[in-house]
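Why does residue order matter? Because the sequence determines the fold. Keep that principle in mind as you read this record.
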Amino acid sequence: MAKGIKDRVAIIGMGCSRFGERWDCGPEELIVEAFTEALADAKISREQIEMAWLGLFFQEQSAGKSALPLSMSLRLPNIPVTRVENLCATGTEALRGAVYAVAAGACDFALAVGVEKLKDTGYGGLPERTKGSFDDLWLPNATAPGAFAQLASAYTAKHGCDPKDLKRAMAHISYKSHQNGALNPKAHLQKAITEEQAMNAPMIAYPLGLYDCCGVSDGAACAIVTSVEKAREMGIKDMVTVKAMQLAPSNGLEMSNTAWDGSYLLTTRIAAERAYKEAGVTNPVAQIDMTEVHDCFSVTELVVMEDLGLSTPGGAIKDVLDGKFDADGQVPCQIDGGLKCFGHPIGASGLRMAYEMYLQLLGRAGKRQLKSPSLGLTHNLGGHPFRNVASVSIFGLHSA
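Structure:
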């Protein structure tokens, strides 16, 4: 029987660039910015890294094809480097490659980097004629705000909730993320807002207003991993280990079958179930101390809370309004400000989420530090509710 990944791999160094409109640099400089922090944190030399993974979504528009943008920008010593792309789960996919390589015994030290430089490409998140084969002649009128607005409508219909209550809960989610992001010097947006501002913002796709939507951004994040045994040899006693990494892509059921009613995210439920089993989590509300979830839109975060088992079906509106996911709530969510304040440089987002878990677990999160968290969860959702790639990862403290 497969052992799974729990407590086999330790994260010994992480770094994250400042996110934002980085007109001052290119993707290579963003990679170097994140890597420099991670390498100093890990206290190893660049020559000790034996394998690397690069997470990058837009190759032609952002950093370039293949693994060369990473190998060349860091002057890596001709080690194997693999470029991965898996929609908004791309950064997590890069980390998964590095973690699995170490767990397999293929190397002692592996590097995962996620990067995207979007602001100067003109990409705004709306449909465009693709440069490759993906969706070139499909869904020409589908927009991300429109697709997730349908998620809100289906959720309202299924649970019979008052649309005004859903809008209030969505406004609270945006308010909460901006409160947290205002404390984070690496966030793209560092300004608090009121719930009234979110409620009264210009409409983008009903019921999603301006503050219900995340923006695009520039940024990079990275991680250096090794085996738990090697970390012990290095004298690391209290380490952050990977408890679970699970991935669930759509198989076409949501898009081409009437079995799915559009009110939830099927792949998130599947990935969460597998991740909880791998990590040994039997009661997520009691055991998960904090989360970073894919809040591309505020309604996404609300629905994901139910799909992760952190709210009961139809119960997320009340939980949100009761403050369950606030920084001082039972299960804090988006402690770093989330996509709402960091924006979404696609290749970097998954690793940026893991970076916040890492800082929080080691007590290094500064003004936004939570009280003694021991288990954190990250979630990515790439694509639309009707067809996507979902990932759920769990990280925690491990004593040697």
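The first strand starts at residue 9 and ends at 16.
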